[in-house]
């Protein structure tokens, strides 16, 4: 694509090969749109976009068909006829400092900005481009030339966020989705930040082919992370409060392919008890005959569901799971204690909580138990930077904390086993005993040799 200037967006081709590409916008897919105000909105493209529109409020409306077939990450300018113009990437330009200062600026009166709200609104309704409106505001601004170059740049950006109709379509990746939830409603995901989520995935050793148990109360972000890392190979078992299918908004936003989601299974807490006998609905009639084909299909579907549930329980009770990930509002140690018997040796246990006290209590309970190796707590820490030529510095406002992670490794409890230090001390003691035995044997041999020499000398004297 030639990025030398704007290009009009047209509906992209819809072929079978493109539908498997997660980096292309398809019908019936989710996407995130970043507005000039930096606000991010979640939009779903209809299965048949046609002439359907997306309303962005004061930033205008656009037709969905102009987004379909386009790659994620492009920036557009919304036109009055609901079409889109692709914008080229912007360059970072270094500002040259001048001798201007802000000390002579006097704001807060009509003389500084003669253009009134009514006049600006009339210019917008006349169809004048946002850049022209901003240009007129700058020209009529009495103190604009008194500002420093940095203040002028900030002024232009504020006006662009207010008048420009430029949007950016973000790819619904795990990073962008987590950031979207964190900015929109952090309590919904227990204030789980993206860097904390990445540390959990690393500590849990998520890998293709692994088998993991997940307790998720963060809108499915933990489940989505596990599915993304496994890539359709292995098993992810979600422990739920009921037997109804879970509604994970994160999975829906990620546009995850069915091959990835197929390895996700659900088991409720009651079914995780080996003594529990689930209530089974009848899957066949008393007479063996069915009133209709529909009734027969319902009974067969019910039978298949019961068989799949029984097989899942057998898989869970067979144990040897590779890891346990927890981000729940329940007391974490009770969950760990319940699921530990089904973990494999060297399985990872990773727990997240926004509160240190909760994890400290769980750590204190796990330390005396031989089944948990080195339970330790880490605090997530992140510093965001503004990166601009000559203006790189930490952001002025950031989150105070990213929560805490408790990590441990499950080991089999063997009463006859000894620690590495105990084995080292035992080997050293055995070595000392062998050295003492050799020294005693050597001393004994020396004494025998001397005694034999004395006997020989006496024999020579007698002769």
How is this structure best summarized?
By secondary structure, this protein is of the alpha+beta class.
Give a quick set of tags describing it.
12 helices; 7-stranded mixed sheet; TRM6; Rossmann fold; nucleus; 3 domains; alpha+beta; 6-stranded antiparallel sheet
How would you describe what is shown here?
With about 475 residues, the chain is an alpha+beta fold. The chain folds into three domains: about 5-90, no CATH class; about 175-410, 3-Layer(aba) Sandwich (Rossmann fold), CATH 3.40.50.150; about 420-463. The protein contains twelve helices and 17 strands. It has helices at about 115-125, 130-140, 150-165, 175-185, 195-205, 220-230, 250-255, 260, 295-320, 330-340, 355-365, 420-460; strands at about 5-10, 30-35, 40-45, 55, 60-65, 75-80, 85, 165-170, 210-215, 235-240, 265-270, 320-325, 345-355, 370-380, 385, 395, 405-410. Strands 11-10-9-12-13-17-14 form a seven-stranded mixed sheet, with helices on both faces. The protein has a six-stranded antiparallel sheet with strand order 1-7-6-8-2-3, with helices on one face. A hairpin with a 6-residue loop joins β15 and β16 (about 395). α2 (about 130-140) crosses α3. It is flat. The relative contact order is 0.08. Keywords: Nucleus, tRNA processing.
């Amino acid at each position: 694509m030639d990025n030398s200037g704007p290009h009009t967006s047209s509906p992209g081709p819809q072929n079978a090969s493109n539908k498997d590409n997660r980096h292309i916008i398809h019908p019936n897919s989710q996407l995130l749109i970043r507005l000039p105000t930096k606000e991010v909105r979640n939009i779903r493209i209809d299965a048949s976009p046609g002439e359907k529109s997306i309303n962005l409020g004061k930033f205008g409306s656009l037709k969905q068909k102009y987004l379909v077939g386009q790659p994620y990450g492009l920036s557009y300018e919304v036109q009055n006829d609901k079409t889109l113009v692709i914008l080229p990437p912007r360059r970072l330009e270094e500002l040259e400092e001048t001798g201007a200062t802000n000390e002579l600026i006097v704001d807060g009166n009509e003389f500084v900005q003669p253009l009134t709200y009514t006049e600006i609104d009339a210019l917008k309704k006349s169809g004048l481009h946002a850049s022209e409106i901003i240009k007129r505001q700058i020209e009529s601004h009495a103190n604009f030339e008194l500002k420093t170059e940095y203040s002028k740049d900030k002024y232009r950006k504020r006006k662009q966020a207010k008048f420009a109709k430029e949007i950016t379509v973000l790819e619904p990746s795990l990073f962008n989705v987590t950031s979207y939830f964190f900015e929109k409603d952090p309590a919904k995901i227990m204030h789980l930040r993206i860097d904390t989520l990445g540390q959990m995935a690393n500590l849990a050793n998520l890998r293709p082919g692994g088998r993991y148990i997940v307790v998720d109360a963060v809108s499915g972000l933990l489940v989505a992370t596990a599915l993304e890392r496994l890539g359709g190979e292995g098993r992810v078992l979600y422990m739920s409060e009921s037997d109804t299918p879970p509604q994970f908004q994160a999975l829906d936003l990620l546009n995850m392919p069915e091959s990835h989601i197929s390895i996700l299974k659900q088991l409720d807490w009651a079914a995780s008890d080996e003594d529990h006998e689930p209530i089974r609905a009848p899957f066949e009639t008393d007479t063996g005959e069915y009133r209709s084909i529909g009734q027969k299909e319902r009974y067969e579907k019910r039978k298949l569901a019961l068989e799949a549930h029984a097989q899942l329980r057998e898989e869970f009770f067979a144990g040897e799971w590779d890891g346990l990930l927890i981000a729940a509002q329940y007391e974490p140690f009770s969950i760990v204690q319940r699921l530990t018997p089904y973990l494999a040796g060297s399985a990872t246990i990773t727990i997240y909580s926004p509160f240190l006290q909760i994890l400290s209590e769980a750590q204190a309970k796990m330390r005396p138990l031989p089944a948990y190796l080195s339970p330790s707590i880490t605090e997530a820490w992140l510093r965001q930077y503004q990166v601009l030529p000559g203006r790189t510095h930490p952001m002025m406002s950031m989150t105070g904390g990213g929560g805490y992670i408790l990590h441990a490794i499950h080991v089999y409890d063997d009463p006859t086993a000894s620690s590495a230090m105990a084995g080292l001390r035992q080997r050293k003691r055995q070595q000392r005993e062998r050295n003492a035995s050799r020294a005693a044997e050597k001393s004994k041999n020396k004494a025998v040799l001397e005694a034999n020499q004395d006997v020989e000398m006496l024999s020579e004297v007698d002769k």
